[in-house]
Amino acid sequence: MSSTVLMVGTRKGLWVGRSDEARREWEWSGPHSDMEEVYSCLVDTRGGTPRLLVGASSSWLGPQVRISEDLGATWRDAEQAPRFPDDVDASVERVWQLAAGAQPSVVWAGTEPGAIFRSTDGGETYALERNLWDHPHRAEWGAGFGGQAFHTVLPHPEDPASVTAAISTGGVYRTTDDGASWHPRSQGISAIFLPEGQQFPPYGQCVHKVARHPSRPERLYVQNHGGVFRSDDEGGSYTSIADGLPSDFGFPMVVHPHEPDTIYTFPLGGGEGRYPVGARARVWCSRDAGDTWEELGAGQLPDSFYVGVMRDAMTVDDHATAGVYVGARNGSVWVSPDAGETWLCAVRDLPDVMCVRAAAV
């Protein structure tokens, strides 16, 4: 029987949870990277030994990528975290995203300010994707409330030369020539903060998260700042799939690991509150690619929940019966070991949760 590892990144360190395949009882270690902001983490199960990668940021030492090859028992710094070349007048503030590439040794990092770096040695060293950094649209990219960052990096599962990424506030971009050029793929996603008549620009949207399934890479699911969308042509066009949700505002978007038409999101009120509608914590699920939605967690998730769930604080594992995980800004992490049917609290009273990642190991 396989076991489960769950990484929980917070504003004050990382916690690592371990459970069996049942995922109902958890043992925890942490904090790792104590008092550092952890905005990204990765359970890399490629190869014979699973590796944990963490993007941590220290107020004194700056950002770093840390690696564990024994499921969190010991850690070491990567040889060189993402850093801008000497001729670039910028410094990396945070690593917002770590993603495994289509090739075994490739790891992608999305950063603040908005940049993407590529590692070809398993996450030890990183090189700037210079043609994206020098993109002519850069001058028009803004910064969302949380800062300007490439928070989504989606390597194509079959084509190493193709990567789709998203930035707040800038929209969705894609390369199909191994980074030689990057093109906007946002037409049809709304920018509700722009004047009427200008709310569907080719780029400049405040995209919160993009997800896709490896067996159907041409289909993208988007949680936007006002709007939930699906693309069936890898960003060439988008269709709204918000009907049936209590709100079209939120941060996370997650695809079931075995069912490409099953997706999960966590809607929030779009006003100043930024907590669930009615203060009821609920995961919303569609099993038909967004055509219809159902509410999950009634009677199990809290009914008095005045906190948000961030864009990377929701994830799934890859067990045969998939687990769904939700981390909240009140330091609680909720787990469904049966794809959303039942829920339990795996841990409480951690610092503000920024990211969660889980996998069968």
Automatic annotation (TrEMBL):
Signal peptide: none annotated. InterPro entries: WD40/YVTN_repeat-like_dom_sf, Xyloglucanase_GH74. GO terms for biological process: xyloglucan metabolic process. This is BNR/Asp-box repeat-containing protein. It comes from Nocardioides marinus. The lineage of its organism: Bacteria, Bacillati, Actinomycetota, Actinomycetes, Propionibacteriales.
